[in-house]
C-alpha cells in the first residue's frame, strides 16, 4: 500500500511539472503575440484577446496551485502500513521432554540419581509405587541397592512400605536380610514421625468430641473409653471366665477311627472312649529314635581341637543371637 501511494504522488508531481512547462510556454507565446501585435494589425477583437489572456496561467500561479495541492496531501510516513506477510509462518511447537521409560526409572533408583528421580516424580507422581515384572517397587530396589538418599526421598513422598514381591519380600525384609543398620534407622524414624502426626490428629479429634460412657454387660460396670476397656486384661479375664476351652486330641479330622467314632454318636467335647470318660488333652510324647539305654554313652575327654570347635560354635551362636535380636527389635517397631 505504501508503494502504491508513492507511485501516485510521483505521477502527480510529473503532471504538475508538465503543466508548469506548458503554462510557461503559453506565457512566452502570449508575450510574443503582444510584441507582434505592436507591428501587425490584429485580426481579432480586443475582447477576444482579453478572454484568451484570462485563461492563461503564469508560472507563479502554477507554483501556488502546486503548493496548495501538496499541503492538502498527507505525509506518506503517517499513513498506516500493512504488516509484511511472510510466506512461511513459523509455528512454535512445544517440544515435550522425552518420557523416561520404566526400565530407566528403575536404573535411576538403583544408581541413586535423586535429581532425575525428583524430576520424574514431580511430573508423574503416580509412579511412586511403580513395580517391575518381579513385583519389586522403587523403594525395594533402593533398599537392595543401599541408595540412602533415594530411600529418604521415596519415604518423604509417601511410598508404600508394605508392597511385597512374588516371593513375599518387602522393603523391611530386605533391610533385615542385608543387615543394613542405616536404612533401618531411617525406616524407624519415618515410622515414628508418622505416629506422632497420627497421635496429634487423634488428640485434636478427642478434644473436640466428648467421651461417651460405655456399659459393659460382661463386667457389669460403666467405663469412659470402650476401646480401652475391651483391650484391658480385666475384660478378657471376665469374658473367658465361663468359656469352655476347645478340646484338642491331636488327632486329625481325616482319621478313619475319628470319623467312625463321630458316626457312632460320640461327643467330642466329652472325652476319649465310647462313653466319653477318657482324657481330653493327652500328654504329648517325644519319640525316642536311638536304641541306646540310659547311661550307655561313654564320656570322652575333649582335646584342643574340640575345644576350638566348641568356641567357634559359641561365637557363631552368639552372632546369630545378635542378628536375631536385631531382626526382632526391628520387627517390633512395625508389628
From TrEMBL:
Record keywords: ANK repeat, Membrane, Transmembrane, Transmembrane helix
Entry's Gene Ontology molecular function annotations: nucleic acid binding
All copies of domain G-patch, residue ranges: 253-299
Biased composition (Basic and acidic residues): 75-85
Positions annotated as ANK repeat: 134-166
Organism of derivation: Bombyx mori (Silk moth)
Transmembrane segments: 15-36
Coiled-coil regions listed: none
Stretches for region Disordered: 75-97
Entry keyword annotation includes Glycoprotein: no
Source organism superkingdom: Eukaryota
Entry protein name: G-patch domain-containing protein
Amino acid at each position: 500500500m505504501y508503494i502504491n501511494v508513492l507511485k501516485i504522488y510521483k505521477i502527480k508531481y510529473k503532471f504538475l511539472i508538465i503543466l508548469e512547462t506548458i503554462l510557461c510556454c503559453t506565457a512566452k507565446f502570449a508575450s510574443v503575440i503582444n510584441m507582434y501585435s505592436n507591428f501587425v494589425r490584429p485580426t481579432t477583437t480586443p475582447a477576444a484577446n482579453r478572454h484568451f489572456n484570462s485563461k492563461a496561467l503564469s508560472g507563479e500561479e502554477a507554483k501556488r496551485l502546486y503548493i496548495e495541492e501538496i499541503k492538502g496531501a498527507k505525509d506518506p510516513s503517517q499513513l498506516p502500513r500493512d504488516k509484511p506477510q511472510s510466506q512461511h509462518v513459523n509455528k512454535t511447537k512445544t517440544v515435550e521432554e522425552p518420557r523416561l521409560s520404566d526400565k530407566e526409572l528403575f536404573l535411576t533408583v538403583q544408581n541413586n540419581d535423586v535429581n532425575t528421580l525428583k524430576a520424574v516424580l514431580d511430573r508423574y507422581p503416580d509412579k511412586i509405587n511403580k513395580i517391575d515384572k518381579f513385583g519389586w517397587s522403587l523403594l525395594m530396589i533402593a533398599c537392595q541397592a543401599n541408595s540412602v538418599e533415594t530411600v529418604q526421598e521415596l519415604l518423604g513422598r509417601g511410598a508404600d512400605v508394605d508392597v511385597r514381591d512374588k516371593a513375599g519380600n518387602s522393603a523391611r525384609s530386605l533391610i533385615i536380610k542385608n543387615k543394613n543398620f542405616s536404612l533401618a534407622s531411617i525406616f524407624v524414624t519415618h515410622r515414628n514421625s508418622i505416629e506422632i502426626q497420627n497421635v496429634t490428629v487423634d488428640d485434636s479429634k478427642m478434644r473436640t468430641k466428648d467421651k461417651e460412657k460405655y456399659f459393659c454387660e460382661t463386667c457389669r460396670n460403666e467405663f469412659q473409653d470402650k476401646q480401652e476397656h475391651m483391650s484391658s486384661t480385666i475384660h478378657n479375664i471376665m469374658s473367658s471366665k465361663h468359656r469352655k476351652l476347645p478340646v484338642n486330641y491331636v488327632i486329625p479330622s481325616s482319621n478313619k477311627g475319628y470319623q467312625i467314632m463321630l458316626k457312632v454318636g460320640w461327643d467330642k467335647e466329652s472325652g476319649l472312649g465310647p462313653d466319653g470318660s477318657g482324657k481330653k488333652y493327652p500328654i504329648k510324647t517325644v519319640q525316642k529314635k536311638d536304641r541306646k539305654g540310659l547311661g550307655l554313652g561313654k564320656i570322652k575327654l575333649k582335646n584342643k581341637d574340640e575345644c576350638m570347635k566348641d568356641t567357634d560354635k559359641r561365637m557363631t551362636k552368639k552372632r546369630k543371637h545378635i542378628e536375631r535380636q536385631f531382626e526382632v527389635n526391628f520387627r517390633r517397631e512395625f508389628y
